[in-house]
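Researcher: We plan to redesign the surface later, but first we want a full-length starting point. C-alpha cells attached.
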C-alpha cells in the first residue's frame, strides 16, 4: 500500500516508516528536516506542514499524521492546523483505507504544556470529524495517545534522575513505551484493523489509571 507519514526524520515517525518499509509498503515521508532513511521503498519530501507547500502525492491509502512540536510557541499551528492541512489534502481520495493521528495522553489529562495539550485535544476531536467524512470511502480514522515515549524529545526528563524517578512513581507499569512499540500499534490500527473507527487509544503504561485506595 501507499503510506504517507509526516514527521519521519526521527522518533515515532521514523519508527513507523521503518515498520511499513520492512513489511513491503511504499512509504512517502514529509518533514521539515532531511531524513536518514535510505530505502528503495521510501521517498522523502522536505516541507513545513504548517505553512509550506505540501507535495502532490496521489492515491494515498494510509495517512499517518505524526509530525508535531512541543512547547515551541507554535504547537497549535503545527500540531493542529498543520495536521488539518495535511489531512484535507491527502485523505479524501478513492484509494484511502485509513487515517491515523498521533495525539497524546495529555489530550485526556491536560497535564502538559498548555498549547501542546490543547493541540492534541484538538487532534482527537478532529479525528472524529474525519471518521465521519472518510466513512463514505469505507475507510477508518483513529488516533493513538501515547504517554511517555523514549525518544530524544524527552531527554530532559529521561536524563534527570529525580524527574525520572518521580515519573515512574506515577506510572502503574513503571516504564515508558519505545517508538517501535508505538509503530506496532500504528501498523495494527491502520493496516490490520478494519472495523474500529472514531476511537482514540491511550498507551500510557497506566499513568492515567494510577490510583491508591485509602481505607
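Model: Full-length starting sequence:
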Amino acid at each position: 500500500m501507499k503510506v504517507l507519514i509526516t514527521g519521519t526524520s526521527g522518533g515515532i515517525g521514523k519508527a513507523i516508516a521503518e515498520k511499513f518499509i520492512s513489511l513491503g509498503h511504499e512509504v512517502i515521508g514529509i518533514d521539515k528536516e532531511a531524513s536518514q532513511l535510505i530505502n528503495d521503498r521510501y521517498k522523502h519530501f522536505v516541507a513545513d506542514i504548517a505553512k509550506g507547500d505540501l507535495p502532490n502525492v496521489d492515491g494515498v491509502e494510509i495517512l499517518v499524521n505524526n509530525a508535531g512540536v512541543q512547547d515551541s510557541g507554535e504547537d497549535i499551528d503545527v500540531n493542529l492546523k498543520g495536521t488539518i492541512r495535511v489531512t484535507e489534502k491527502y485523505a479524501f481520495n478513492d484509494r484511502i483505507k485509513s487515517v491515523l493521528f498521533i495525539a497524546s495522553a495529555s489530550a485526556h489529562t491536560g497535564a502538559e504544556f498548555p498549547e501542546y495539550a490543547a493541540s492534541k485535544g484538538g487532534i482527537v476531536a478532529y479525528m472524529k470529524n474525519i471518521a465521519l467524512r472518510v466513512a463514505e470511502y469505507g475507510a477508518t480514522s483513529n488516533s493513538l495517545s501515547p504517554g511517555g515515549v523514549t525518544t530524544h524529545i524527552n531527554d530532559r526528563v529521561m536524563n534527570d534522575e529525580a524527574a525520572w524517578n518521580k515519573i515512574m512513581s506515577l506510572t502503574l507499569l513503571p516504564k515508558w513505551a519505545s517508538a517501535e512499540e508505538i509503530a506496532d500499534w500504528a501498523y495494527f490500527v491502520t493496516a490490520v484493523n478494519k472495523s474500529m473507527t472514531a476511537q482514540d487509544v491511550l498507551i500510557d503504561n497506566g499513568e492515567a489509571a494510577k490510583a491508591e485506595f485509602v481505607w
